[in-house]
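Exercise: predict the fold of this chain.
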Amino acid sequence: MPAATIVFTDIVGFSKQNSADQQRLLNALNAEVRHALGGFLNPPDGSPDLIALPTGDGMALVFLDKPRKLWDGDTLLKLIIRLHQWAFSGKGGAGVLQLRVGVHTGVIEEIRDINDRPNVCGDCINYAQRIMDAASPAQTLFSEAAYRHHIGSDRQISVPLDKKSVKVSLQGPIEAFAKHGLQITVFKLVLATAAKWHTNDDPVAKHLMLVTLTSLPKSITGNFKVSLGTAKQVALIQLTGERLLPKLQNGEVNFSNDLKRLWVFMPAPDLAQNLWLPQSQITDTPITPELVGFQTEAWANYLDLFRRERPGVEIKLGVFSSPLYFGASFLDWDRPKGWIHVSPCVWGKHSTEWPGYDLEWLGSKPSEVYETYVAGLNHLNSMTSNHIARSGSAA
């Protein structure tokens, strides 16, 4: 199957323009591309190296990877810089504009569209759009495939333009969040000399993440129950755990046969003195030091028995004595596809009505927020001793 490099671009804020300005913008953008790439669009031999596709608010330029192609990586960089400068110049007729540009290299399928004109389809063009979606205004991002195919290092490249050269490099890898829950690896185009027409900052999408809100009222069923039964590592930060523990004891909820680690963390009974709330507000029974102590003992007994039945599993019951408190569940948190559920307290609401949210490790590197919660778990582990290892019951 043929390969290609796709330069996907859109005009930031295009939909906010009136119809007349939209027409002027697209005509001006098309004219700029024709001026820069006319020889590729209409070659003398009639076999184009480039297919230009309108996208409504921009275009996708498909550079076909032929054995004797007339374009190279420098062609792409020159075009990209020229388009960003054009947008900033205001020559489009709607003032200063910004573009987002995404570049990806991969396999395509060449087809004919409904008007019998050349077109392409396949994952490559879809992924090129995702790369562009992750770019900030006035920014260019390369996919990992495009970076390795055309650049391959962080070397500085001198791109010749009409009047002077512009020195650029590509920096990364950067994990960014794209649409549809996709975590992608990108490399950002960086100017050696900062300019207003292109940003050198990391893409805003680097700091985005997928957060899923837990449906209410919360229950220990569904996806959580299934995930708990397949995870190899489980860490539970409990207030009392009085809803989960009985389900574990009676076999309604089970851990995986491949479980390697099970940590449970509970507040010290005296800490619960500061967490006391009336019965009608939070749980079916008041949160008192006595209740927390009783539940900690119950967890200790369960975990001690579990350790005897599953000697190959690392078991820990940690008791922490310093705020702040929040409920959380960590499943396989140190690897891709790891999952964290966090449940902050809401005043005046029953615990089943506390809105929780789920964080997932997407891509090859977790988000900054995900890493922060994992750091909190590791801190909690380091500051607590194992009550099971000491006595088999709560101390």
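Check your answer against the key: The chain has two domains: 3-206, 211-391.
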